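Aim 2 progress update. The chain analyzed this quarter is reproduced below.
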Amino acid sequence: MSKLNYRFFLKLSVAACCAVFGQTAIAASEHNAAQGYGKFEFALIGDVPYKEADYWKVDNVIAEINANNQLKWVLHAGDIKNGSTLCSDEMFEDRLQRFQRFTIPFILTPGDNEWTDCHRSNNGSYQPLERLNRLRELLYPVPGETLGQKTMAVETQANDPDYSEFVENTRWMEQHVMFAAVHIVGSNNALANFSGRTSADDAEVAHRIDAARAWIKETFAKAKAEDVRGVLLLFQANPGFELAKGSNERKGFEEILADLEQESVEFKKPVIFAHGDSHYVRIDKPMKGSISNRRIENVTRVETFGADDVHWLRVAVDPNSQEVFSVHQEIVDKNLEQHPLP
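Predicted structure tokens:
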């Protein structure tokens, strides 16, 4: 074979190999998608609506999300009102009507503003546990089914006889990625003292922490058993990931934080903790090992827009990527403008 023919043959062979490998990669990607490893996206919001003056901004967010036909569902990280407005049935019903405008499944985890802080006089001087029961009745009407015009079936902890009241703790899987909502709220997870607090309030916190820990452990156990590619947990409170163990701000969260650390380290794959509460959008790596004091690199915290910043986050999920999750800020341009006068 001449040198010229050899070089031609070599180029042809390389091109053929590249074509084969390229086709193989495409085929593998298509196979994974067919087997339940396809890409998808969803929306993440929280701490909205906070006040009546911003209802129009929430309307814009809902319109944008509804117009995006790539989104699977909407997650709401709690606080459906601010901390100084009425906790009335009318408020709950108003929020239900607003959330039902989403054309895709809507998953809410409760926040402290809608029940734990309702004892405040400007909230109506309600008994918090009574408001929690009412919240569950109105915003979780069908156990195991989401809100939204298009609903979605989810697992609910209410099916566990030990935690039958926790209809709000839900779990589901999409494309070999696990999702769960866990009732963990601000105000030190409802331990903050208030006039008229009773032993029943204390007992509720202890039982809810037990329920949260059980739901977290069960979620990771299922994730490992089913070899999922990643896990996302949704809750309302900022539990103080960065703060020293024993800090006052971590009261009510210590046991849960210890579980989150242990389960994430053992899982080893990407984990997202999505929450609201601080009204400070951030995507970071806040968790350090309690023994090693080293950053736990497979854990990412995602805190949503909320309160005065009425926008949303778009989360893209690619089960075949190393990071699995990628987060994109969706700024609603109309919400940067001053509301037009009527």
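The chain is about 35% helix and 15% strand. Residues 157 and 233 are 14 Å apart (CA to CA). These observations will guide the mutagenesis experiments scheduled for the next reporting period.
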